[in-house]
Amino acid sequence: MKNILVIDDDVSIGNMLEEILAKEGYQVLRAYSGTEALLVLEHKKPDLILLDLMLPGLDGKSLLPAIKEIPVIIVSARTDTGDKVDMLLNGAADYVTKPFDIKELLARIAVQLRNSVSMGIAPVLEFDNISLHTGTHEVYVCGCPVKLTKTEYAILKLLISNPRQVITKTLLLEKISQDTPDCMESSLRVHISNLRKKLRDAGGRDYIEAVWGIGFKMKEKP
After folding, report:
1. Domain spanning 124-218 has what CATH number?
2. Which of 134, 111, 106, 140 is nearest to 121 (CA)?
3. How confident is residue 219, by pLDDT bands cut at 50, 70 and 90?
């Protein structure tokens, strides 16, 4: 099920969009200001965003540059051509003016979701409060960036991709060899130890556990 984040301070419009999108089979997230939207995006990665420009506090124009790897459709009462051009040149995927035709908006949403799949927009892998962005190789814990080495990133990506599976040392070395050919069995434990420490320092708990005699896996929150 695709997730759509509606960022609009107009409650009636937001309710209407949520009802329509839910009927179309989408899961809907809501935010009523730019600041609230940033908080939502720290923990969630929607497939598409509907963004109003006239928001309290942090407005839509200021929020747009902070949105990465997610198609954004501007839904605004502003009809000035300059506003449309400015938004499209600064990262918006599309621009729809209010009042809008529901069928047209749904069609534009479908097009953007289809385009994002065909363009291979990198997904975000998540485990608990860790998010790993495969397109930019960025890792966040509790919304804060964590700087990893190339080898640490490759290890974490493999473990998060198989969160309930114990990954043996042999399989771990085999799978990450393309990304980090310099990682050897003798240094693997050091890389994992450093990775565990960085994640623990950022999140306040252990996220990776060693399964004695077998390998490693992601550790569920107690």
Report:
1. 1.10.10.10
2. 134
3. very high
Q: How many Å apart are CA 52 and CA 136, to the nearest integer?
A: 26
Enclosing H/E stretch for 43: helix 34-43
What is the C-alpha to C-alpha distance for residues 65 and 174, in angstroms, rounded to an integer?
Answer: 38
Paired tokens of 159: 């473990």
In this chain, the answer to whether the domains covering 3-118 and 124-218 adopt an identical fold is no
Q: Is 212 left (phi over 0), alpha (psi -120 to 50) or beta?
A: beta
Angle between the 150-161 and 185-203 helix axes, to the nearest 10 degrees?
80
Where does 3-118 sit in CATH, by number? Answer: 3.40.50.2300
User: Which residues are CB-neighbours of 46 under 8 A, at least 6 positions away?
Assistant: 3, 4, 5, 29, 70
Q: Tell me the per-residue pLDDT of 118-145, one tens digit each, with 9 for 90 and over.
A: 555 557 888 999 999 877 788 999 888 9
pLDDT attached to residue 179 = 63
Confidence (pTM): 0.56
Residue with tokens 């860790």: 130
Domain limits, the chain:
3-118, 124-218
DSSP track, 106-156: HHHHHHHHHHHHHTTPPPEEEETTEEEETTTTEEEETTEE----HHHHHHH
